[in-house]
Amino acid sequence: GIQVEQSPPDLILQEGANSTLRCNFSDSVNNLQWFHQNPWGQLINLFYIPSGTKQNGRLSATTVATERYSLLYISSSQTTDSGVYFCAVGYSGGGADGLTFGKGTHLIIQP
Amino acid sequence: DSGVTQTPKHLITATGQRVTLRCSPRSGDLSVYWYQQSLDQGLQFLIQYYNGEERAKGNILERFSAQQFPDLHSELNLSSLELGDSALYFCASSDSAGNTIYFGEGSWLTVV
């Protein structure tokens, strides 16, 4: 199956800092999503981005499908950005059909 | 609020027992997914249903089964529970395109 590697595994930053999280995957995909799991366990969808670039406020993401990686950028970090960020990928003829998740990047934003 | 509802939120049960987790997808979503999150295995895809039919199967144990009903809600049945089944079980749903999936708040299962 598809292998998903996320880096770094842990990241501690001060409030206001910027960060880049990376996701490498081992095979062609037509579905890639980024999720944020907050300290209460809720998984929130950030981006559906199988290719290209998207921005949503302080967050943006870029996927280079031909080189099999995706990046999540967080600018001007806030303490509420703390949590685990997951990259999930999949390939199917249609529908998510079971995304494969990476192990996540555990982000801690200190005030 | 993702619109995906899961019950119960917390559950403690003994080894060897059977439990049922319930999920109501977002209004209009035809696909339902079940995931298991544990400390050692991470987030693992278990099974997907689409409009009542099984569509994809992941790392689901034979002791586990699921179904999706005509009203599109889904149930995950876990039987002969073992200590290692303790985990956070997520349900998620998506529309027919499946481009974005939305997760419920999860059901915390503790097997003692």
Model description:
The complex is a heterodimer of chains A (111) and B (112). Chain A has 111 residues and is mainly β. Helix content of chain A is 0%, strand content 56%. In chain A, the strands form 2 sheets. In chain A, strands 2, 4, 5, 9, 10 and 11 form a 6-stranded mixed β-sheet that branches. A 5-stranded antiparallel β-sheet of chain A has the order 1-3-8-7-6, with no helix packed on it. The N and C termini of chain A lie far apart (40 Å). Chain B is an all-beta fold. Chain B is 0% helix and 54% strand. Chain B has strands at residues 5-7, 10-13, 19-24, 31-38, 42-50, 53-57, 64-68, 74-78, 87-94, 102-103, 107-111. In chain B, the strands form 2 sheets. In chain B, strands 2, 4, 5, 6, 9, 10 and 11 form a 7-stranded mixed β-sheet that branches. In chain B, strands 1-3-8-7 form a 4-stranded antiparallel β-sheet, with no helix packed on it. The mean pLDDT of chain B is 94. The chains are: A mainly beta (111), B mainly beta (112). The A-B interface holds A 31, 33, 35, 41-45, 48, 86, 88, 92, 94-101, 103-104 and B 2, 31, 33, 42-45, 47-48, 50, 55-58, 88, 90, 92, 94, 96-103, 105-106, 108.
Mean pLDDT of chain B: 94
- What sort of overall outline of chain A do the alpha carbons produce when their principal axes are compared? globular
- Order of helices and strands of chain B, N to C? EEEEEEEEEEE
Mean pLDDT rating of chain A = 94
Q: Largest interface, per-chain counts?
A: A-B, 22 and 29 residues
- What is the helix tally of chain B? 0
Structural class by sheet pairing and helices of chain B: mainly beta
- Tell me the Rg of chain A in angstroms: 13 Å
Please give the oligomerization state of what you see: heterodimer
Give the percentage of residues in beta strands of chain A.
over 45%
What is the general shape of chain B?
globular
Got a strand count of chain B?
A: 11
Largest sheet of chain B: 7 strands, mixed
Low-pLDDT stretches of chain A = none
Helix content of chain A: under 10%
Order of helices and strands of chain A: EEEEEEEEEEE
The percent of residues in helical segments of chain B reads under 10%
Radius of gyration of chain B: 13 Å
